[in-house]
Amino acid sequence: MGRADRSVNGVVNRAVSDLGSYIRAQRDTAQISLRQLAKRAGVSNPYLSQVERGLRKPSAEILQQIAKALRISAETLYVRAGIMEHRPSGPVVDAILADTEIDERQKQTLLEVYASFRRDNRTDTTTVPAASDDGPPTVPTTTVRPESEE
């Protein structure tokens, strides 16, 4: 096994261990036993124990069952497991994710466009003139007159 392979394995093992520790902490916070969580999540006690100790990496489906049993976001567990990237939250992101009339691909596209607009605005160097005491700044307009009014 090469040096790079050992390094990657180390990162994966730490992530799995961190996930297990996080699940255990959430279970402790919810004040439920390992046996109760295993039953609610539909997994065996030994399997859940191995997940908590970082010896097993559960599938996305199992993580969803565990999240539901803990009454936490499955997305949080997916991020911790490295299955999904962390998404910023906020009213716009939350509204997009909650929309039931668009599919996951459409949600992802909207989130990417929204994120790009936010990045562009953070790096935008255009300055906006400050409003004077006379009121808000005015926007120049052009009036088009019909030819008959000459």
TrEMBL record:
PROSITE patterns xref list: HTH_CROC1 (PS50943)
UniProt region (Disordered), positions on chain: 121-150
Gene Ontology MF annotations: DNA binding; DNA-binding transcription factor activity
UniProt keywords, alphabetically: DNA-binding
InterPro entries in alphabetical order: Cro/C1-type_HTH, Lambda_DNA-bd_dom_sf, TransReg_Diox_bact_type
HTH cro/C1-type domain span: 23-77
Keyword Protein biosynthesis on entry: no
Gene Ontology CC terms: cytosol
Low complexity bias locations: 140-150
Family matches, as CDD domains: HTH_XRE (cd00093)
Entry protein name: XRE family transcriptional regulator
Organism of derivation: Actinopolyspora mortivallis
Source species taxonomy: Bacteria, Bacillati, Actinomycetota, Actinomycetes, Actinopolysporales
